[in-house]
Design goal:
Blueprint: H1 8-18, E1 26-29, H2 39-55, E2 58-63, H3 73-86, E3 93-95, H4 100-112, E4 116-119, H5 123-129, H6 147-158, E5 168-171, E6 186-190, E7 204-206, H7 208-218, E8 223-227, H8 234-244, E9 250-254, H9 266-274, H10 289-295, H11 299-309, H12 320-334, E10 336-338, E11 340-341, E12 344-349, E13 357-362, E14 373-378, E15 381-385, E16 405-408, E17 413-421, E18 427-434, E19 452-453, E20 456-457, E21 462-469, E22 494-502, E23 514-517, E24 521-525, E25 534-540
Parallel strand pairs: 1-2, 2-3, 8-9, 10-23, 12-18, 16-19, 21-25
Antiparallel strand pairs: 4-5, 5-6, 6-7, 11-22, 12-15, 13-14, 15-20, 16-17, 17-18, 21-22, 23-24, 24-25
Helix pairs in contact: 2-11, 7-8, 11-12
Bound molecules: adenosine-5'-triphosphate and magnesium ion (MG) (2 copies).
Adenosine-5'-triphosphate (ATP) binds at residues 30-32, 35, 40-41, 43-44, 64, 226-227, 256-257, 264-267.
């Protein structure tokens, strides 16, 4: 592999290891189990796990499950499956909720140090005293409660004496700070809600800022990597660690992945699922890891994409076509070439009387091991693509037309002698003759034709449903448009071809198989397939059809 320069996080890690600041690198991937993981998470996964693969140490999987209302075990399981599928293994499976006791005692410690207080102001009153970025805030009337009173109230909060929102616990920092997050942030709130792991044990839950850094610290995370929205949280992250005198994890921020024609927040993806605008979290049009998997992406192609986009300190927007490029490049080397006719029309070879002939097809000329060959049955009646015939040929048309010759891939040259139309004027049959001396690999006919088309033998073909996918949104930046992002859904994002014909060899396809349908793109079997009906997804077209 080519030499690559270090990204800025790798530079920090190398410096910290070389200087002896840390002996062992420890990172974590901290998803909130409130949805399925998406391609943006893949970037964070590749970064965190990639660092410890490269520099040693280990990476934890920590579910950031401090918000009882949105979190579910279904999401925990899918997130684990997706990380494994990407090819990564975590050292410890951990849950922020496992630290609820410890976090609670951290809060008590802050109260005892005079660094936290219970506030009973309403949300409006708190907002009114918060100030603005240019004006300092003002102290809450409850800011100077005694330690004893704070401890008593906080214990009552924990014991369920109060309703949701009646009291909160705040850190006592600085109401005049230029960083709004340092103006006595809320660290615990009352929420009488069942948690997916702790059940009804707790009715107070820590806020993100009070849970995340302390969880990092409990796990001795050396480099806590997050996205740029958290830059302003870093001061608070450091403040809690300093005041609690615990392991000094450090937070570093990188630019999140933004992709054209895509929304990525779990909240928005959940809307698409709940409103049945897609078939589920793993709909092949979704930017989720499970959607990409079902679409036919390989783990390698997703890792390659994450490698190519790199790690930056500034926000940017990546073209969806780069992701498609990565899967195309991978499949070009690995996918067997097969024949499938998506929009079929019958071709009859009037002078072919040999019954069934078994032809030999090359599986993949690009494969490193040569790819091998397979048997393809050929017979008198074939299916070809409707678009490969023109009744009145255009200029430079090298495919079938009355009187024209074309090569059938892996087989013979045929000449169109005649065609049949139905009462509506649609062509229903094409009649050809074949040149017996023109067999592929053994052509002594001396005839040169410019066009080669694919086909399947009608008698041997299997039927299949083919699903073609396009971008899910018509806008390049659906998040930035006026109004609702769902107004920019692409009504043509899914096209179903119910009646395609495929080579019989494809009956053996499994969910891991990847194919190039010759001239048509890369395809994989969908899990909706049954014994009677195979369903294939188009992963990506052969060429970049991205319109600018
Ligand atoms: P979302 O709402 O889109 O799921 P999130 O940050 O709330 O984003 P988390 O489950 O908290 O989702 O994210 C887990 C980790 O993945 C975090 O460290 C976060 O920074 C990272 N992450 C999330 N979205 C992206 C993205 N688009 N690009 C890179 N990293 C991301
Ligand atoms: Mg988050
Ligand atoms: Mg979130």
């Amino acid at each position: 592999s080519e030499e690559k320069s270090l990204n800025f996080i790798e530079e920090i890690v190398e410096n910290d290891l070389n200087s002896g600041k840390y002996e062992t690198l420890v990172t974590r991937f901290p998803p909130e189990p409130n949805g399925y993981l998406h391609i943006g998470h893949a970037k964070a996964i590749c970064l965190n796990f990639g660092l410890t693969q490269k520099y040693g140490g280990y990476t934890n999987l920590r579910f950031d499950d401090t918000n009882p209302v949105t979190e579910k075990t279904e999401y925990v399981n899918s997130q684990q499956e997706d990380i494994r599928w990407l090819g990564f293994n975590w050292k410890n499976e951990l849950y922020a909720s496992d630290y609820f006791d410890e976090l609670y005692s951290f809060a008590v410690k802050l109260i005892e140090k005079g660094l936290a207080y219970v506030d009973e102001s309403s949300a409006e009153e708190i907002a009114a005293l918060k100030g603005t970025p240019t004006e300092p805030g003002q102290d809450s009337p409850y800011r100077n409660r005694s330690v004893e009173e704070n401890l008593e109230l906080f214990t009552k909060m924990k014991n369920g004496a109060f309703a949701d929102g009646a009291y909160i616990l705040r850190a006592k920092i600085d109401m005049a700070s230029t960083n709004m997050l340092m103006r006595d942030p809320i660290i615990y709130r009352i929420k009488h809600a069942e948690h997916h792991r702790t059940g009804n044990k707790w009715c107070i839950y820590p806020m993100y800022d009070f849970a995340h850094g302390q969880s990092d610290s409990i796990e001795n995370i050396t480099h806590s990597i997050c996205t740029l929205e958290y830059v302003s949280h870093r001061e608070l992250y450091d403040w809690f660690i300093e005041k609690l005198e615990i392991f000094p994890s450090k937070q570093y921020e990188f630019a999140r992945l933004n992709l054209t024609s895509t929304v990525m927040s779990k909240r928005k993806l959940l809307q698409l699922v709940n409103e049945n605008l897609v078939s589920g979290w793993d709909d092949p049009r979704m930017p989720t890891i499970s959607g990409l998997r079902r679409r036919g992406f390989t783990p390698k192609s997703v890792r390659e994409f994450c490698e190519r986009i790199g790690i930056a300190k500034r926000e940017n927007l990546i073209e969806l076509s780069l992701l498609e490029f990565c899967i195309r490049e991978d499949l070009n080397k690995t996918a067997n070439r097969v024949m499938a006719v998506l929009d079929p029309i019958k071709l009859i070879i009037t002078n072919y009387e040999k019954g069934t002939e078994n032809l030999i097809g090359e599986n993949n000329p690009e494969a490193e091991d040569g790819g091998g060959t397979r048997v393809i049955p050929f017979s008198k009646e074939l299916w070809i693509e409707r678009e490969d015939f023109m009744e009145v040929p255009a200029k430079k048309w090298f495919r079938l037309a009355p009187g024209a010759m074309v090569r059938l891939k892996f087989a013979y040259i045929v000449k169109c002698e005649d065609f049949v139309k139905d009462e509506n004027g649609n062509v229903t049959e094409i009649h050809c003759t074949y040149i017996p001396e023109s067999k592929s690999g053994n052509d002594t006919s001396g005839i040169n034709v410019k066009g080669t088309i694919h086909w399947v033998s009608a008698q041997h073909a299997k039927t299949a449903e083919i699903r073609l996918y396009d971008r899910l949104f018509t806008s390049e930046t659906p998040d930035a448009e006026e109004g609702d992002f769902k107004d920019y859904l692409n009504p043509q994002s899914l096209t179903v071809l119910p009646n395609a014909y495929i080579e019989p060899a494809l009956a053996d396809a499994d969910l891991e198989s990847r194919y190039q349908f010759i001239r048509k793109g890369y395809y994989c079997l969908d899990r909706d397939s049954t014994a009677d009906k195979l369903v294939f997804n188009r992963t990506v077209t052969l060429k970049d059809t991205f319109k600018k």
